[in-house]
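Dear support,

Our group has been running a series of protein-ligand predictions, and this particular one with N-carbamoyl-L-aspartate is the one our PI (initials K.S.) wants archived with full inputs and outputs. We had some confusion internally about which version of the output was final, so please treat the block below as the authoritative record. The input we submitted was:
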Amino acid sequence: MRHLMSPLDFSVGELDQLLDLAQDIEKNPQKYAHACDGKKLATCFYEPSTRTRLSFEAAMLNLGGSVLGFSSADSSSAAKGESISDTIRVISCYADICAMRHPKEGAALVASQKSLIPVINAGDGGHQHPTQTLTDLMTIRSLKGRLGNITIGLCGDLKFGRTVHSLINALIRYENVKFVLISPEELRIPDYIREDVLVANHIEFEEVERLEDAMSQLDVLYMTRVQRERFFNEEDYIRLKDYYILTKDKMKLAKEDMLVLHPLPRVNEISVEVDDDPRAAYFKQAQYGVYVRMALILTLLNITV
Ligand code: NCD
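Confirmed final output from the archive:
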């Protein structure tokens, strides 16, 4: 039985296969409409979510399966003090596969160790968010035609942003990917990514503070929200929350075919006037998230169509 905790749980070859499957699902959705008949997905969300939970649910429904679950810790037995290990043992009796989001780093891993069904990490604190990474990879591959030979700017909260941590881990495995890390001093990428992932693997990267200084060299700009819920005090959040705002004017500095991605939700970091720019791909990205989660469910349940 396989779980998904980190994008590195799949080899590059397996990732290619998964993305090929997602692409086939996009082209031929009818072919997969009954692939999961009779199967159930549990969504166990101890932290807020719109896209991740609903895209998992949509994915399972599109495959003909059904869904059950909870969308906040208050509405589960966690509020009574139940451990994750006990919760997953019980959920293993009710469902065939589980997507779990939790505010604590490593929570999904703990669950996977006691689970009788595949567990998917749908975000564990400030650590990892592998299914967002699958979504990001599918978006870049579909719209740019490649995953190697790109310069990607990651902008905003690189300290707490789990989507950024997972995406860096995944992208270093492709040829000639250069990272431009754009953040204020306080929100720089954690050392365990800079040293153990980037430096240790001899990956080309630079750290800059001004978005304007990075813009012209980028093939992809990945914007992120300042992660309010992970700050220790509100004052710091307020000081940093509008540090970056991508506007039409700043887009003039970018290549004509640069892609703007964002895992969403957006707060202020991308002005709504940018939404009509053909380079803005964040809503398409959300759509790709459904196909890639369909492909993931089929892969972890070992279902071939
Ligand atoms: C991201 C997350 O939960 O980490 N959202 C998502 O899953 N699309 C990004 C965020 O919340 O800022």
